[in-house]
Amino acid sequence: MSLAELLPLVNDLNPSDKLSLFKLLAAQIPNAELQAIFSASEYPVWSPYDATEAADSLMQMIQDDQEASTHA
Question: pTM above 0.85?
Fold first, then answer.
């Protein structure tokens, strides 16, 4: 049976059966290959934690804007 023939059958499964199928297929994939699939990408995430320079710059911009507004 080809994948093209199998896909409509899989789409017709209920969520519980799809999960069971996924677990069955995942168990047949060697662990090293799963590691390569799921750890291949890194996505850096910026956090404002300890971003004091950015906070200082923003505060300076706000103060400059407020001063410009009062002098206009």
Answer: no
